[in-house]
What we know:
Elements: H1 5-21, E1 32-34, E2 41-42, E3 50-51, E4 59-62, H2 64-69, H3 71-79, H4 95-109, H5 112-123, H6 131-142
Antiparallel strand pairs: 1-4, 2-3
Helix pairs in contact: 1-5, 3-4, 4-6
Amino acid sequence: xxxxxxxxxxxxxxxxxxxxxxxxxxxxxxxxxxxxxxxxxxxxxxxxxxxxxxxxxxxxxxxxxxxxxxxxxxxxxxxxxxxxxxxxxxxxxxxxxxxxxxxxxxxxxxxxxxxxxxxxxxxxxxxxxxxxxxxxxxxxxxxxxxxxxxxxx
Length: 153
């Protein structure tokens, strides 16, 4: 249990409220079906390297029409290919990718979920009440590049 039960209770209430506000949520069994299969095995005791034991895709079915028709999902899907997963490879961010990030942020900031999250963060002194400043804060947290290399730098 948390050191401060009142804080944990407040946070739990806000998270439940955000869940209820998400009218665009995809529903298991209706909008998607998953195939759980086997668990990942760790290669060695204490190792962070896991070996995937699944021999089939995780998703059996996904309602792609729903994902394409909702602005938040559609704009998120467009940014998935914008970043280099390999360490040691320099990012090249194009103006088109920056615009995709912007479209995504605009889409999520129009949702009741993000409006309420913003309101809560403002009440806790963790975000500016100005939506443009909040958008910049989200951009910096989610999309601003940071230095990374193969040596953990």
